[in-house]
Amino acid sequence: MARTARRGALLVIACSLLFSGCSRDERPDAATWLPAWEAMTSVVPAQGDLGDPPDEDLCQDTLASLRVQNEGILPSPSVTVDDLVTEWIAVAEAAFFDCPPEGEDINSFNDAYEELDRIEQSVDTALSDET
Q1: Are 131 and 30 in contact (CB under 8 A)?
Q2: At 131, is the pLDDT very low, low, confident or very high (cuts 50, 70, 90)?
Q3: Residue 60 vs residues 28, 55, 97: alpha-carbon distances, Å
Q4: What pLDDT does residue 104 have?
Q5: ∠ CA(41), CA(45), CA(49), 5° rounding?
Q6: Does residue 76 contact residue 82 with C-beta atoms inside 8 Å?
Q7: Kindly report the CA angle at 71 between 45 and 101, in degrees rounded to 5?
Q8: Is the pTM above the cut of 0.90?
Q9: For a Cys staple, 43 with which of 65, 68, 111, 120, CB 3.0–4.6 Å?
Q10: Which is it for the CA torsion 109, 67, 73, 19, positive or negative?
Q11: Any residues with CB less than 8 A from the CB of 102 and at least 6 apart, and which?
Q12: Does the pLDDT value for residue 82 go beyond 70?
């Protein structure tokens, strides 16, 4: 039940990020926005640094850093990238909040890191399509 409430809270955060990005008239160009995205993705530690079992302090520090970094990440250069960024944030925050993740779709850090990598590649593709 607590996990359901946490996931609901993460969904509300993700929707808020999405709507805040849609409310602005102007979007940054990719070159202007990319440093914020790189800063966001860089706070996720290498999977090997998590330990087995995962270091709870590292998970909490990562979660806090993710929440700080997501300020100003939206809007992105396009609505497509907004959606991907929102998805990336939700996956990353859920993974480090649960430490380790134990959901239906993402039930381990392996799954989370694979999904984060997939989304990052999709962001790269979407950005290259913008230019």
Answers
A1: yes
A2: low
A3: 31, 9, 7
A4: 84
A5: 165
A6: yes
A7: 40
A8: no
A9: 65
A10: positive
A11: 3, 108
A12: yes
* Measured distance CA(23)–CA(11) in Å, rounded: 18
Cis peptide before 35 (omega within 30 of 0): no
Q: How many domains does the chain divide into?
A: 1
Angle, vertex CA 69, rays to CA 125 and CA 73, nearest 5: 45
**85-101 pLDDT, tens digit each:** 999 999 999 999 999 99
Residue 130 pLDDT:
74
> What does pLDDT average to over the chain?
86
* Residue with token string 């799954």: 111
Burial class (CB in 10 A: 0-12, 13-18, 19+), 56: exposed
In eight-state DSSP terms, residue 48 is G
Which domain range does residue 23 map to?
2-130
What is the number of alpha carbons within 13 Å of residue 89 lying toward its C-beta?
A: 31
